[in-house]
Amino acid sequence: MDFNLTEEHIMIRDAARDFAKNELLPGVIERDEKQEFPKEQIKKMGELGFLGMMVSPEYGGGGMDTVAYVLAMEEISKIDASASVVMSVNNSLVCWGLEKFGNEEQKQKYLIKLATGESIGAFCLSEPEAGSDATSQRTTAIEKDDHYLLNGTKNWITNGSIADFYIVIAQTDKEKKHKGINAFIVEKGMEGFEIGPKEQKLGIRGSDTHSLNFNDVKVPKENRIGEDGFGFKFAMKTLSGGRIGIAAQALGIAAGAYELAKEYSKVRKAFGTEIMNHQAIAFKLADMHTSIEAARHLVMKAACDKDNGENYDLSGAMAKLFASKTAMDVTVEAVQVHGGNGYVKEYHVERLMRDAKITQIYEGTSEIQKIVISRSILRD
Ligand SMILES: Cc1cc2nc3c(=O)[nH]c(=O)nc-3n(C[C@H](O)[C@H](O)[C@H](O)COP(=O)(O)OP(=O)(O)OC[C@H]3O[C@@H](n4cnc5c(N)ncnc54)[C@H](O)[C@@H]3O)c2cc1C
Asked: Which residue is closest in CA terms to ligand 1's atom 50?
């Protein structure tokens, strides 16, 4: 594996780092407390090209590779995981799937707006009775004349109220089980489409999470993505790449907490010396640094696999599993290094600890990643 970054990679990483420090850090504590969506900041991220990084320039994107994307995700997540989840959903779950599997009209109508950040996307798979078991879709899309009639409920949808376009997975033919599932582009404002109340969350509190209700929503036939029955495969393929983004998010949360803990250990004194001089603290930092480096290697491996046209189901799942555990372990220890100060908001590490947990849950829980990994290694 060659992780030598190009000049462009370094430029993108530095631009994301500067943006996070200058634009996301101010107000991040208040937004977390008030569960406030970083609206202005996301608008600027769109203008800077962070919302459609991998989309080809033909469709308004940055034409960058996955390595560039994970570098930027890591930097944004060090400061504000509520902003990086918007970036992750828009880039990997919405734009990527549309560019790869959408038709030309869909790309012209939706992808260009999404890639430039003019519009925001959401990816709607989970339901009250279909989370890890995504095949148990209860949302139905029944074919009628020139449209599908969409009925059902999706929950936990990131960008739920702020999105303009929603990729919705629904069952069109129950008999065919997962082969009777389709993916549709639904527009905000379509008749019968209702947005439920905002979820009150432990972490990534600035992100906008809602349930969605569809009551006889008429979705034009031309809004189906791919061939009839392609929806489940579409969702799995999209999530496989999405996991690389979430792994990078977890890595960023861990790295952000580690950097804060390291700096704090150099200035905080106990027993007449800086706490970094106590071996118990120095060893914690050594463990944090080592696991972050290991997580970064897995994330980069998965990103390189994707860029090189290799299969990335296994490397992406391993990256997400390991990086999300690293995010939990490191943030808990970062709070410990800060002592009492770690427990209050102004030092940031308690927020990072709360934000870390979601990376073990969404886009496939850690248990589901282990299923993906074990199936893959046992098949060989
Ligand atoms: C903040 C937030 C944002 C989200 N954003 C989105 C979004 O934008 N779009 C979207 O579609 N979804 C989204 N989700 C949903 C998320 O992907 C699901 O919560 C997740 O997939 C788990 O599903 P579940 O909550 O139904 O848990 P369940 O599937 O009920 O799982 C409960 C527990 O059982 C375990 N489990 C389940 N099946 C197995 C098994 N076969 N073997 C071993 N263990 C198992 C799970 O790992 C978990 O520990 C979001 C969730 C949250 C909390």
From this structure: 156
